[in-house]
């Protein structure tokens, strides 16, 4: 089983545990292409983990089943059952109402649904314990702030670059959620009347840098006769969508279409992050998500270069990092939301 980094006290995954079971929590990260689940103790140490693909159809009911299945597998690797968990947290994209435990407007998940769905109560019925919810990126950024790349700073911007582009903020040590949707960096407008975004509006960052938007543009380019190895790599990897690994391999092979689309995304990310820095002047920016983690510091450095012409205080650029908890940031953050206070 893969391990999260243990350097500097970061969580390490391990099989089996003799930890007091009343002090063990589950965390689930619901993404556009994958569901990641972890079991953690009171220190945030990862005791077990599992990953399943996100259902591509079937709606919210099918998603809840897969969430439970992934959690069950993670619990099994930790030597327990989900019923033994003190609580479960879920980080999800879209519109999360934490008080009601509902999820709505999930354009990147299972074909999407708009009406609020009682995901927490439905999953809680299967698990047999309390389920709490939070925005996927907000909880991931909180985990990085407490345990990962943001732990040495008081103010952090998290940018989660994957199927979409999400964001989260910690300001002077406090997670900043505004009225519930603060940090939606993917829906900052980078080009008025620009490309159509999955949210229905035009010119959002996500319409240029989100993996789903880049895939749509790649498919259109292929229909026009443009050559690319993106879809060959996708088939070779037995994927149905252009995952982060597919994009990374295509960039490694210097595929012209992949290179052009990612370069455009990097440029728009630079413009947007610079605008946030000009407004909030945070100390550090942490990049996570499928593409952010997969492409790593070489591409974070490119984003930093793209930021530079747009920064007001050019001599005080924020520290730039890749999420240290990697793919587990969201799931660990969701677990912390459910119980452990670091």
From TrEMBL:
Gene3D superfamilies: 3.30.420.40. It comes from the Bacteria. Transmembrane segments: none annotated. Residues 1-24 are annotated as: Disordered. Pfam families: ROK. PANTHER family: BIFUNCTIONAL UDP-N-ACETYLGLUCOSAMINE 2-EPIMERASE_N-ACETYLMANNOSAMINE KINASE (PTHR18964:SF149), ROK (REPRESSOR, ORF, KINASE) FAMILY (PTHR18964). Belongs to the ROK (NagC/XylR) family. This is ROK family protein. It comes from Corallococcus sicarius.
